[in-house]
Design a protein that fits this description.
three-stranded antiparallel beta sheet, alpha+beta, six-stranded mixed beta sheet
């Protein structure tokens, strides 16, 4: 397990470590989620065996190409789950007794728009098919306004090889931030379970990443790492969103990356600020 001291040795400054703790700057996500809760779904499918919906926030709806892309993604997700639920309804009707249809809710919330080009979206799936509790899965999407398509963060870095220097640094910084937040929440992290073993220095396993908004117009202050319940802790701990300032990985940035990062994390805002 990589310690905070090791990360400091890897050129992470004390100032950066302070910024890592308690990622309040993306409370905007909570604001966006609140707005979604009040929004009418953009797509609904209801049958005897499935109750599903897709909801986009108002910022996304104002962008027609992005709306079309995400709505198609959401409808595809619903259809896949509808087919699976239909099969189970036919073979195991007892799973749907008393009219209890399986629930699938997908929401998309825009959390930043960097330079009018790179739009970060947090996608949250709520799924309940019976059992002790529902599941919540969090992922992110990066939309390129120029190319009109989803992209990855690869162009922002000199290299993003699995287990390479960039992703090792990002992984270590994100895990250090998680530990800071757990301490702030009063969560004992000294148990026998290694909650961090599945978070690996690969682009697919380091965490769901979005560009964090900045105090500097047109820039991103760093990266936000989003973890679903169970990803880095018990279900009772809920989800985590932590912030890694851009100075932490500055030396790993490509020319394209250096052009979009700058400034500081936005001051904390209340969840009901909108």
């Amino acid at each position: 397990m990589t310690s905070v001291a090791m990360i400091c040795h890897d050129s992470l400054s004390i100032k950066s470590l302070v910024k890592l703790s308690l990622f309040g700057g993306l409370i905007a996500i909570a604001c966006a989620s609140g707005a979604l809760a009040k929004s009418k779904p953009d797509s609904i499918v209801k049958t005897k065996y499935i109750d599903a919906s897709v909801t986009l926030d108002s910022a996304i709806r104002a962008n027609a190409p992005l709306t079309d892309n995400l709505l198609a993604d959401g409808k595809h997700w619903i259809e896949k789950n509808r087919v699976d639920a239909a099969k189970e309804f036919k073979s195991s009707p007892e799973l749907f007794r008393d009219g209890h249809a399986w629930t699938f809710e997908r929401s998309y919330a825009q959390t930043s728009n960097v330079g009018g080009r790179y739009v970060s979206i947090v996608r949250t799936d709520y799924v309940y098919t019976g059992g002790a509790h529902p599941n919540t899965l969090i992922d992110t999407i990066l939309w390129d306004e120029e190319a009109k398509k989803q992209i990855s963060i690869r162009p922002f870095f000199k290299e993003t090889a699995d287990n390479g220097p960039t992703l090792k640094r990002l992984r270590d910084a994100a895990m250090a931030a998680i530990k800071v937040e757990k301490e702030a929440r009063g969560i004992d992290d000294s148990g026998a379970i290694d909650w961090y073993k599945e978070v690996k220095p690969t682009l697919l396993n380091v965490g769901a990443i979005s560009l964090a908004p900045s105090t500097m117009a047109g820039k991103s202050a760093g990266l936000a790492f989003h973890y679903s319940p169970y990803a880095v802790g018990s279900y009772a701990e809920g989800s985590y969103t932590v912030f890694v300032p851009w100075e932490t990985f500055k030396e790993n940035l490509s020319t394209q990356g250096l052009a979009i990062f700058g400034g500081d994390q936005l001051p904390d805002t209340k969840p009901d600020a909108e």
